[in-house]
Amino acid sequence: MMVDRRERIERLLQAEELRREDLEELQPYDVAVVLPDLEPERQIRLLILLPPDVAAGALEHLDADDQYAFLVERLPVNTTHAVLAAMSTAALVDLLKALHPRQQQAVLRLVPPADVEDVRALMAYPEGSAASRMTTEYLAVRAQWSADQVIRHFRHVGRDVEIAHYVYVVDRAGKLIGVTSLRDVLLAEPEMPVADFMHASVVSVQATADQEEAARILRDYDFGALPVVDAEERLVGVLGVDDVLDVAEEEATEDIQKGASVVPLDTTYSRASVWSLYYRRVGWLAILVLLNLFSSAVIAAYSSTLAAVLSLAFFIPLLIGSGGNAGSQSATLMIRALATQDVRPSQWATAFAKEVAVGALLGLTLGALSALLGVFRGGWGEAGWTLGLVVGITMVAIVVVANLIGMTLPFLLSRFKLDPAVASSPLITTIADATGLLIYFSIAAWLFGIG
After folding, report:
1. Per-residue pLDDT tens for 368-391?
2. Which secondary-structure segment (H or E) carries 280?
3. What number of other Cβ atoms are within 10 A of residue 260's Cβ?
4. pTM, to two decimals
């Protein structure tokens, strides 16, 4: 597929008389994939000849730095004006938010004056809010309009409408009072007022709501777009399903990075500098080193127990590794359940009871296997059976406790309005290690009678 794209575009660029009509069928994504690999002269020639909407769509797929370079530094001013006029408001806002303030001003000077006010209004919304991702290019009509009036209005403004399959109904104050589809408008009798076939019960999202909430509503209701309203229920924009797909990708990437104890990157890995990767990783690693001091302290406190029964040391990796793994499994399942609202914070007790049962079953299974290994390692005499009993009981206790730690931390973080993804595998493992060692040596000291 990539070869076909490249060959097709290369063939077009090599033509002696390249016309804009020849490029109209190119898809923006295909252009964006091929564009970075072309020679600079061919990049500029291609963007100049492309229809502005295709060029705008292609640039929207590039990183902010590349977009800025083309729009401000490389393309002719008239081409930049045309491309910016064709670019969606949401894409412009995303670009501007990713740039330095001086670069923002350079781009804003090239944006059509009619769009600047909308762009500045969207930039005022908090990062990560539903409104920060919405478009202001939608179709809004009045309830008393006839179906024919709506069609005539759409013919007048339709070229500037990004989300056209929904028709939103507002009152004189701009308050959202209904919604219908363009299909229903076309099928209605020409003189039938919109109020007669619109849906008065409209599902919407507050402008300041988290973008994840907006994504969840779109997913739950299976809508193609979601209206965004302010505190007075006035329609301020529309969030499209394509914007939500971007949100889902960003949130998933962020959660994966947090799950590895990495402060989320603000760019792609390939563009991140060595320094950026360093300082976004070193903080959590330093904290985990400090937490691991508890494990060292536990071993030091039970050094006499370890010296008396040296074979206890052989099972430390097995026990604490199993505990960390069990805790990570529990945390991963709980973080995802909380994120999708499959489990709510109020259901803590139910989840706790379930994880106690699961942990006990897992612990008994792994404990039986570990006990056999302990007996085998310690010999078939009394010392071997005691070692097997210590290892088996410890495994049961460690798995149950680690399971509950992994399940509880996401709930606690949610209670304090923090992202449950912070309860990452390294953090769970570190806590489970110290706890597991304390359990292990306590049981060993008791069963071996070491004071």
Report:
1. 999 998 888 877 777 788 889 999
2. helix 274-301
3. 12
4. 0.61
